[in-house]
Amino acid sequence: MVVAASYDETLKYGAQTPFSDQLTFKWEGGMWEYDPYHNSIITAGNGGTKPTQAAFTIFYNQGVQRYDLEQTLQPDEQMWIDVGKLIREQVSDKNGKTLPSDLKMGSYEFRDLTNTGVGTLFEGKIIYDKTYGHVVYGCGTCCGYATPKVFYDPIGVPLSATASDGVNAYENCNRAWENVSDSFYNNWATGNTAIATVNTYGTHSGVSVGSTSSNTSAYLDGTKYAPRCPQLLFAPGGGVNVMPKIMFTGQNITGTTQSVVVGQQIALTASYGNITPTSQSWSVLGTIIGGFSTASNNGGPTSVSLNAQSTTFYWVAAANSQMVTFTLNYGSSQTASASATFNVAGPTSVSVSVSPTTSGLLRILNNGTTNALIEFGSTLGTPGVQFTAHATSPSQATGTYEWAQLINQNNYAYTIGTTTTFCNGPAGLDNSFPTSTGFYFSDSPWRGLPSADNKFTWTWNATAYFMWNPGLTNSIAVPLGYVSWQFFSDTIQNGPNTWFIQADSSASAGSFQASSSYIQWTSTATNGSLGSCQ
Amino acid sequence: MRLTINVLAYLLLSLPLATDARSDANHLFSLKLHAPVAPIKSGTEVRLKVTVTNVSDHSVRFGRTPGIVPEEELSYLIEVRDAPGQLPPLTPFFQRLRENPSSTWGSYITYELEPGKSFDDELVITKLYVLTQPGKYTVWVARGQDPLDKSGKSVVKSNEVTVAITK
Question: What is the model's pLDDT at position A139?
Answer without folding.
Answer: 65
